[in-house]
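Hi everyone,

Forwarding the result from last night's run.
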Amino acid sequence: MGKQIHQAIVSSFRVYTEPRVVEYVSGLGHSIAGAAHRKDLNYQFTILYDPRVYATEAPGGYIYLTTGILNFMQNEAELAALLAQEVALLQFRDRRFSK
């Protein structure tokens, strides 16, 4: 189900691809996910062009941030807290979406 949701999201939004920003967010996200309970997830961090201040997640380890929320943040600590929250939300299995 997560793959289907991911495909719908990336087909509805333009994906932000500036390598330094993408690598930075992904690296920080993977560092945080390394301490997560669920090691079975292939965490993927996607930045979407959207001025809205928004972040969300989808089953399977998909995490989405908008350019709006990145512009809103003041420092790395705020970004780390947001990524930690999204990773944490993926730790609880929902029987409706489990394999």
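Helices lie at 2-12, 19-33, 67-72, 76-89.

Cheers,
N.
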